[in-house]
Amino acid sequence: MAAPISESLISLLRCYCKSFRCYPIRTHCRRYCTNSLSKTGREQPRARDPLPIFLKDEVQRLLYRINSFDISKICAPQKVPSRKPHYELLTDTQLQKKQEEAVERAQTRLQMPPVMRVREEVNPVLSQDPELAGLMDAKLVCVDITYGISDRKRHVVVRDLDGTLRHGTGEERDRINQIYNPKPGRQMFTPRIFEPENLEAVLDKGWYAYVLDWACLQFEPDQPEYIRVTQRTYEHVGENKKFDDLRSTRHFGPMAFYFAWHKSLEPLLMDMVQRDLLSDGSDLVHLFTIIHPDSETCQRIRGVDDDLQTIKIFCETETSHSYKGQLQLTIQAYEDAQNLHVDAA
Amino acid sequence: MPSLPTKSTRLMVRLARYGCTNRPFYHIVVIPNRSPRNGRIIEQLGTYDPMPNMNNERLLSINFERLRKRIADGVFMSKPVEQLVGLAGFYPIHPMSYIKAERQRNKLDTKQKKDETAEES
Question: What is the ipTM of this complex?
Fold first, then answer.
């Protein structure tokens, strides 16, 4: 249809998405591999790995639920090459089927990029051969281009100038993979937009989804640059309270997860209370308790059903001193507004 | 009547030069022994770029799955390919690699000594 989507259609789709919210939405999305990544953790004093927690079904369900499903935003007009309009004559059932397909397509657009920690740099030396020193004036990089190997499992070995044979570093692997197995849209050299000073300029303009989409395309989720860029973007969003810009995009879940992980949920929680999204707020608190199971909130929240009560408990136990007053005021304002509403009725 | 030399038809893995003037680029190919250098190939196994790139690396790519299969079928390798595959850690290091390395080191040593004596005098 060339005409803009009518109001009735949008409301119909909203009904759909409400019904979808009852079921695990992940069934519509490509599943990320969980085996090879989360189970290779070596017992070393590294930062805690967020990936196994992020991939828990419970966490995924919460994250999809707090991300609103605004189809007019997900399927907003995009710049595409011009083409002729396509008309179809459909019966009611066919139309309904088409609409369901459209909703499923929109769901796939909300698939969240995984939250991972920075990859480990282990470069075991395969062999040392000092007899070979002086043979070459440049390193020799050998890639296994066997068909059907994933980029993560591909062997990349390097013969150094002193005759050492070792596995390629992460940076080398990224470069070589992009040469021999290029990803469409990914650039050979890191775009200058991701340099810290340029990134600040773009973030100040408020192009959050643009930066995050591009970072998803350009980097692997455990690449140090990806983690730096996304975390800086989330922080910028938090500082400027522009959470609504990321709603109905695939980045809202990872952002909420980031704030919960680093115990700085308060701005996001205040935003949710102000927008009358109490169920989302309590979901967020539940997410916090899953990530930090030994926190005080976790014990006190057990058996509490009411959304507002949950948020209040979080406010009492976890909120830092600087935010406590603000969050309490926000909750107070919300309650006053509710009471006014009841009185007027 | 003199007998004709036997023309063996065994298969080789060897380098076929592509690229252009002053810019060599090689395909690693499976090809009958007696075919011309860039003749009709049976299979391409990989590539080799002998010119160092901006990170001072020479890039060698090989489909090791197919190479294993070809080796199992009894293919022969040319010396440059054997040396490359040795440096990549797939084969033992070719003896010629060690000899070349030693010659290169000796060359550098004599050059250094010459420079030193030139400076002293």
Answer: 0.90
